[in-house]
Amino acid sequence: MSGVLPVAAVATLQPLTILAAAPGVTGVIAKVEARLQGRRGVRVLQPYYDLAKLFRKEALAPQGASRVFLLAPIIAMTCYMTIPLLIPVLTDYGLPLGYMGDILGGGFLLSLASFAIAVGAAETGSPYAQLGSSRAKTFAAITEPVILFVVFAVALVTATDLPYALAATVRSSADQMVRPAHLLAAAALFLVILYETGRIPVETHTGTNEFGMIEEARGFEYSGPYFALLRWGSTCKQLILYTIFINVFIAPWGLASTGKAIDVIWAIVALVLKACGVGVVVAVIDDSFAKLRLFKITEFTAAAFVLAVLGVFTLYLGGG
Amino acid sequence: MTILPLAAATNGAAPPPGVFAGAATVISVLVLLVEFGMLRAPLLRSQVRLYALQSLLVASLAVVVGAVLDLPELFALAALSVLLKAVIVPRFVLRLLRDSEAEIAGSGALGAASTVLIALGVAAFAVFSFNALDISSPVLPKTALTISAAVVLVSFVLMIVRGDVVSQTVGFFSLENGVSLASLVVASGLPLILEVAFLFDLLVAVMVFGILMRVHHARSGSLTTAQLTRLRG
Q1: Interface test with B, best of A161, A175, A263 (most B CBs within 10 A)
Q2: Where are the domains of chain B?
Q3: How far apart are CA B171 and CA A227, in angstroms?
Q4: Contact status, residue B106 vs residue B164, Cβ threshold 8 Å
Q5: At what angle do helices A180-196 and A224-244 cross, to 10 degrees?
Q6: Burial class (CB in 10 A: 0-12, 13-18, 19+), B210
Q7: A233 or A100: which carries more pLDDT confidence?
Q8: How many whole angstroms separate alpha carbon B105 and alpha carbon B108?
Q9: Among A106, A221, B85, B180, who pairs with A124 as Cys (CB 3.0-4.6 Å)?
Q10: Looking at residue A2, what is its pLDDT?
Q11: Number of other residues whose CB lies within 10 A of the CB of residue A257
Q12: Which positions in chain B touch A96 (Cβ < 8 Å)?
């Protein structure tokens, strides 16, 4: 196990790790949530079985839906598989493809994926799917400025907007961890992640209450392999966001610093463990708060906005 | 193995402020965040609790400064202000609240999100205008001073936007918290007796506000200030 993996292999392993581990992380969160509620819960591997079942089923499209409807899950999945090439998933040094895009590039890809799904849902003519995509876009207009301010904070801290550079800066000294701008930006990002992954202050993840749905409602008309891709894509999106939060902001340790196979394997294990750690926190939040009313969600996003803007303020004042 | 060079942390990057300055700024930012929390706290009780939390934060900053810079009188100040502002005053206001049935703060003139955005604008004004002043402190980073100015102005927003007596009282008390944060920055070496005089000022204000709240509640049967818009002789 002491062989050195070629760079291309390490780069390929980044999206593959996300692809393979994402349903498992979702399964762990569901399990922890069930245990906290005193239920036994389904198996941790249940999301994999669900995906396998869906891939064996027949795909149907509503009458009148165009090609866009069927393309949307594929476009979204492609976006989700491109982002892990840009962010530090396994290595703490930039892989050659890591410099194709910065944090904004990753943000654009995430928005493109969500846009594709929203257009696909709007194609169907189903009221709930359209409601979901309209709501998702409405609230995205409020969360996007938060992301922008987080990026500004990162740019002011590192003078670049490369995720690798911020991770390296955070690793460099303890001062970087306690600086207020960093804490505020990380907190704002965490709130945005709760919103983007459809967790409890915003949306119930497993409920069947259509009126409260945002993200979940968009897949209503999909079936078979397309629905599987959509589901898999949303777990991948969750793990990607967790990875950005962990490996760029709060705990960029345990990454491989060389291309040695053993280091890379440890990095994979560490990533999955850290993601499950964040997942446990998210599950605890899921079980301790109530879902916000739809019109209260703006307050939630406004809180995230305040955090991000204050982070940039403190940087401008020179004390951040 | 190609390892591309990281352009990071070389040119133009903001240097970290150091652990003490960073911690001081974090605490003062938390004080400001609690102030923002008061803007959207729906229950009167939660507002009073947030005020107690804010006072605790200011006192903890005093403890940090006292420990790092070896100013023992700050410990006494912190102990006194915790006793007064985190225990006595909140208990007093909570007891007044228990006598009146009102629980939910009068919804303000604006929605919560727009209030937050306005407060953010006001905070930005405070922060940048104070940053332009040429004040430096030997003990604390200037950021803490600018943030304390933001706390004062945001508590004004709280008092203006909310239409009930308790919110306005809590807003006034938290304004005092902002001022004591500022006094920690610019005048940590102030004699203890002056600081204690400030605290007794607050005690007087608490008494006056308590009586005002009682009188208002007894006269109008509610805690909102809606009836006060048309004053008659």
Answers
A1: A175
A2: 21-221
A3: 52
A4: yes
A5: 170
A6: middle
A7: A233
A8: 8
A9: A221
A10: 58
A11: 11
A12: 2, 4
Facing residue for A298 by CB, picked from B13, B16, B113: B113
Contact between A236 and A19 (Cβ < 8 Å)? yes
Contact between A319 and B17 under an 8 Å Cβ cutoff? The reply is: yes
| Separation in Å, CA of B23 to nearest CA in chain A | 7
Question: Is residue A280 over pLDDT 90?
Answer: yes
- Tell me which H or E stretch contains B176: helix B165-186
Nearest CA to B52 out of B13, B84, B8 is that of B84
Mean pLDDT of chain B: 81
| C-alpha distance from residue A78 to each of A116, A219, A271 (Å) | 11, 17, 22
Residue B3, classed as helix, strand or coil, is coil
3-state secondary structure of B29: helix
Are B76 and B192 spatial neighbours (Cβ–Cβ below 8 Å)?
Answer: yes
Least confident of A128-132, A225-229, A271-275: A128-132
Terminal alpha carbon distance of chain A: 44
Residue A178 to residue B22, Cβ atoms within 8 A: yes
The amino acid occupying position B165 is: V
Q: Are A153 and A315 in contact (CB under 8 A)?
A: yes
First vs last C-alpha separation in chain B: 87
Structure tokens at B34: 């609690």
| In contact, A50 and A135? CB cutoff 8 Å | no
Output the six-digit token pair for B50.
């947030």
Contact A200, A291 (CB under 8 A): yes
Count CA atoms within 13 Å of residue A122 on its CB side.
11
Question: What gap in Å lies between CA A166 and CA B124, rounded to an integer?
Answer: 26
Choose the weakest-confidence range: A60-74, B37-51, B93-107.
Answer: B93-107
Mean pLDDT of chain A: 88
Taking the mean position of all CA atoms in its chain, how far away is CA A312?
23
B→A contacts (Cβ < 8 Å), by residue, are 1-4, 6-14, 16-19, 21-23, 25-26, 29, 32-33, 36, 40, 112-113, 116-117, 120, 123-124, 127-128, 131, 141-144, 146-147
pLDDT at residue number B25: 85
Q: Across the interface, which of B8, B16, B144 has its CB nearest the CB of A165? A: B8
What average pLDDT does range B199-222 have in this prediction? 81
Can you tell me whether residue B164 is helix, strand or coil? strand
